[in-house]
Amino acid sequence: MPGELPCEVPECDGVMVVDPDNSYKLTCDKCGHIKE
Fold it and tell me: How many domains are there within the chain?
């Protein structure tokens, strides 16, 4: 499941993803891991 394990791609870029509840998450663009 995305977001459960730390991202294994060290050079992934953080992208802002909008959740259905309109909150923003900084998420890895390669694996979908939430960075913060």
Answer: 1
Q: Is residue 2 part of a domain?
A: no
Res. 5: pLDDT tops 80: no
pLDDT of residue 29: 82
The answer to whether residue 6 sits within a structural domain is: no
DSSP codes, 11-35: TPPEEEEE-TTS-EEEEETTT--B-
CA angle (17 as vertex; 2, 24 as ends), nearest 5: 110
Say if CB 28 and CB 3 are below 8 A apart.
Answer: no
